[in-house]
Amino acid sequence: MNLRGRRVLIVAEFNHCNGGENSLLAVLPQLQSLGWNFELLAPEGEFARRMQGCGWTHHAVNWKANGQTLPLEQRRQIFHEAVEAIQPQIVHANSLAMARLTGPVCRQLGVASMGYLRDIVRLSPQSIRDLAGHRRLIAVSNATRTFHLQQGLSSSLVRVIYNGIDVSPDKLPWNKTSGVSGFTRESLPNGSFIIGGVGQIGLRKGWDLFVAAAKIVAPVLKNSQWVIAGTRHSNKAETVAWEHQLRQQTAEPPLRGRFHWLDRVDAMPTFYRSLDLFIHPARQEPFGRAILEAAISGTPIVATDVGGTREMFPSIGNAVQLCGTDDPNALAEAIIGLHRDPHLASQRAGRARLRVSTVFTTKRCADAIDEVYREVGQT
Question: What CATH number does the domain located at 7-164+361-378 have?
Answer without folding.
Answer: 3.40.50.2000
